Amino acid sequence: MSRIVAIFGATGQQGGSVINHILNDPQLSQGYKIRAITRDPMSHKAQQLAAMNVEVVRGDVSDRESLNTALTGVHTAFLVTVPDFSPHALQVEFDAAKNVADAAVEKRVQYIIFSTLPSVSRISRGKYTKVASFDAKAKAEAYIRSLPIQSSFYSPGSFMENYITATLLRRASDGSNTFVMNMHISPRTRIPLIEAAGDTGKFVGSILQNPHEYSGKTTHGAERMYDLEEIAREIGKATGEEVAYRQISEEEYKASIPFAADVVAEAMSYFEEFGYYGADTEGLVTSGSVSSDGKLTSFGEFLAKHQPKLL
User: Fold this and answer.
1) Phi/psi class of residue 301: alpha, beta or left (left: φ > 0; alpha: ψ in -120 to 50)?
2) What is the per-residue pLDDT across 291-306, written as a single tens digit (0 to 9) for each?
3) What is the spatial distance between Cα 100 and Cα 216, in angstroms, rounded to a whole number?
4) Beta-carbon neighbour count of residue 166 at 10 Å?
5) What does DSSP assign to residue 296?
6) How many CB atoms lie within 10 A of CB 302?
7) What pairs with residue 6 in β-bridges?
8) pTM for this structure?
9) Phi first, then psi: what are they for 298, rounded to 5°?
10) N or C: which end of the chain has fewer CB atoms below 10 A?
11) Residue 240: is it exposed, middle or buried by C-beta count within 10 angstroms (0-12/13-18/19+)?
């Protein structure tokens, strides 16, 4: 008999990737029945899932009654929380994860897989405190570990999808045909990259295949490390345009960001000074890559697939 796996964030990049991986894996598709949890079961993406014979159920992380209904009969839950950018961002996101975890315990869910991130404030020893989306997930991870439920954790690298946005790549202001990637940190800064929509499921699929092996452990999910100059070169190669990395002042960088400038700038400064996962980032990425249930997508392959246009 198939076990029910509840996928939170089912219409997003990570949740959608997990659903697709389960549906396309002969063993997982036989062992698990998918329940897609979404705030709006009537949305276009939710209806696309329903058309694929996926059970779509309403669940709101701020509505405990809906969570109790959504988690009834569930064996395993994959939980993704959405970053908040209000003045109470850390507490809002932590509370969302806590609500789901508490409901999972109450409804006797057997296993939680939580999409986590490292604590920026802890690793930086209090130097960087504004990256709430990382700190909230780290706090939620610690809380889930304290509960009477089996759990494992997937910690994704930086999403490749974020590096082809119009706000990151702009035409040079000198009238040339060059495009520039402007940031305030060194071009040698190395960042782990993952195609969230394509490859999240490959890591979570491994956990679903061997839940006892991964119990209590954190899987670090990235294809490999890339420095910022290499990212710029790969984009240039894929688009046929001249793309260069340019290091600018932090003030200039913040002025170029349309939303949450202080948070984004601080996150990038943290990556440069302390490493994405801390001092052992390189080793964690290397060891984590072997946990993938299938070949991971390189940044070049990602660009070839999505064919970004520079304007």
Assistant:
1) alpha
2) 999 999 999 999 999 9
3) 18
4) 11
5) P
6) 24
7) 35, 77
8) 0.95
9) -75, 165
10) N
11) exposed
